[in-house]
């Protein structure tokens, strides 16, 4: 089992978040996690979230989606 101070995050790409602009989503993530983590951890999670939401590409039925 994960340690008691562990946080788990998940991203759903089923609908590719068509109504949430990535930059707004990333800012919302930062605002949500900032009170719970050090500045260094917040920056890391923010950066990883940005990479996931801004540079994620998916190929489905020979179509490429960002």
Highlighted features:
mainly alpha; 2 strands; two-stranded antiparallel ribbon; 66 residues; 42% helix
Summarize the structure.
The protein is mostly helical and 66 residues long. It is built from 2 helices and 2 strands. Strand 1 (58-60) and strand 2 (63-65) form a beta hairpin.
* Ends distance: 34 Å
Q: What's the main sheet like?
A: 2 strands, antiparallel
Unreliable residue stretches: none
Q: Specify Rg, calculated over alpha carbons.
A: 14 Å
Total helical elements: 2
Structural class: mainly alpha
* Fraction of helical residues: 40-55%
How do the SSEs run, as a string of H and E? HHEE
Per DSSP E runs of 2 or more residues, the count of β-strands stands at 2
The shape is globular
Mean pLDDT figure:
81
How big a fraction of the residues is strand?
5-15%
For the largest beta sheet, what order do the strands appear in spatially?
1-2
Fold topology:
Layout: H1 22-33, H2 39-54, E1 58-60, E2 63-65
Antiparallel strand pairs: 1-2
Helix pairs in contact: 1-2
